[in-house]
Amino acid sequence: MGRYVIRRLLQMIPVFFGTTLLIFLMVNVMGDPVAGLCGDRQCDPATAARLRAEFGLDKPVWQQYATYMGNVFTGDFGTAFNGQKVTELMGTAFPVTVRLTVVAVVFEIVIGISLGVLTGLRRGRPADTGVLLVTLVVISVPTFVTGLLLQLLLGVKWGVVRPAVSSAATVDELLVPGLVLASVSLAYVTRLTRTSVAENARADYVRTAVAKGLPRRRVVSRHLLRNSLIPVVTFIGTDVGALMGGAIVTERIFNIHGVGFQLYQGIVRQSSQTVVGFVTVLVLVFLLANLIVDLLYAVLDPRIRYA
Amino acid sequence: MPEPHYDPDAAISAAGAGGATDLAMDEGETLEKGPGGGPPGPDPAGRPRSLWSDAWRDLRRNPVFVVSGLVIVFLVVISLWPSLIASGNPLHCDLGRAQEGSRPGHPFGFDGQGCDVYTRTVYGARTSVTVGVCSTLGVALLGSVLGGLAGFFGGSWDALLSRITDVFFGIPVVLGGLVFLSVITSTTVWPVIGFIVLLGWPQIARIARGSVITAKQNDYVQAARALGASNARMLLRHVAPNAVAPVIVVATIALGTYISLEATLSFLGVGLRPPAVSWGIDISAASSYVRNAPHMLLWPAGALAVTVLAFIMLGDAVRDALDPKLR
């Protein structure tokens, strides 16, 4: 197990550098990093040249990347277009997005798994077919359409919730956005749980448990669920990283000032430091989530042995 | 593609089984079917049925396939000849009629600029279908060639490809789109398609690689090798036909997600840009008028949802047909 962890950590290194390099190249080669520094006007050539020299943008790209990564590892993510430290922006943005992600994951676990278990145990019945159809529709409707429709219905027409989230972004304000963010993954969790439960319900150990007279509730919760949830846990784990990256659309619709908002601002204002910094952290989160899921897998399923 | 909400696990593992089914009938050989694995009988031509004709027979009887297929045929027809059902010009707008509701001759009403919502919704299909079909073709070609070669030859190219796909999987797709497309100000669909192909091919490459590895271990490939077949012949004649099913399944489902991705990017303002006609642009514009004129939002959003649903359901039906194990 120890050797496996070390090997996985070593494998993460090239992926981390590859991904950040790709983003770095996209931002710095395709865009003009100094364009955003003169406000809405074009920089005059002399100022632009001075700024380039000041930020080291006249050096080759690989050298810029090396310098940037060196700074990142000492905790310096640079400054945003308005002179704020990128780390300060992260300090305000990440707690909001983490809250939103947690709300979304809770929805996935509670609604997704319960629907999945219910339908998996009633395979082929009307309830099962109905839920399957609904999940298919939820998967097909893009998140931004779901978000706008829910905002229109709950926020504007019926006035159940406030259509926009305040800057405090408390958990109760994030319930609807969290549901929107979770919607597609929720449908996948439901389908995955359903398939897994239906498959395991035919397994020998379940028949044994029933045959030895255990109550149905105990068979389901102790025997069936423990084995059926392994793929679901891995899906939810990898989804955490994806949700944080995908929150950009949800945050845009509900005006939540989280990671997505800051990134969007960074892109609109052409503040390359903000964009690269936030994306770097998101990539790290994504890689770590995947690592944890892989390790969790071994704990959950003792049949898997890592050399 | 690190499409956050597309879970390929089910599709891949399910489709994986389809790839191993024998398809060698085109060589005129009679093939012994395993006990219970054989089809009920030969079709009228006297040849045993292949995976494909079996799948086609199942598909024709599947109402989901028929309905989604009809919707897709309709979408393709109106994206080729939108003037068949919409006589107006999507760019002809009359500010005086902005936000008006349904009128005779203008069933969906008018948008915030006074453009006819019906005409724009019909013309928007062309964008979505073009983006979906072209991106899927690009992704499938690039992904299956690179992934297939990696799976077949293995070695250092395989190791390198695995690392490259890892890198691409690490980039959240909407985020990558914002960064990549924000500097391009073209009003055509090609930058968006290029971006989707760039970020999408690793997904197909992984699947193609896996299914080629499964297929190349089959006895008939070893037999071909023993008979002195060249690599090219083994790959094209024996491995590719048996490995292509999972790729087709995943690509069909991905087509729907690419359409949805284009709309999402256009909604965020970086995909297509006006004056291009796209459901994403229209939905984005409509979202500021939601209070007064919800019809502006509902029609393009509904069209988008139906289109994506049709492609995803088609993919689902194709998967069921190509993978008999699931039933």
Automatic annotation (TrEMBL), chain A:
It is found in: Cell membrane. SUPFAM superfamilies: MetI-like. It holds the Pfam family BPD_transp_1. CDD domains: TM_PBP2. PROSITE patterns: ABC_TM1. The keyword Transmembrane applies. The chain crosses the membrane at residues 12-31, 96-118, 130-154, 174-192, 224-249, 275-300. The keyword Cell membrane applies. Belongs to the binding-protein-dependent transport system permease family. This is ABC transporter permease. It comes from Streptomyces enissocaesilis.
From TrEMBL, chain B:
InterPro entries: BP-dependent_transpt_permease (IPR050366), MetI-like (IPR000515), MetI-like_sf (IPR035906), OppC_N (IPR025966). It is found in: Cell membrane. It is a multi-pass membrane protein. Keywords: Cell membrane, Membrane, Transmembrane, Transmembrane helix, Transport. Belongs to the binding-protein-dependent transport system permease family. The keyword Zinc does not apply. This is ABC transporter permease.
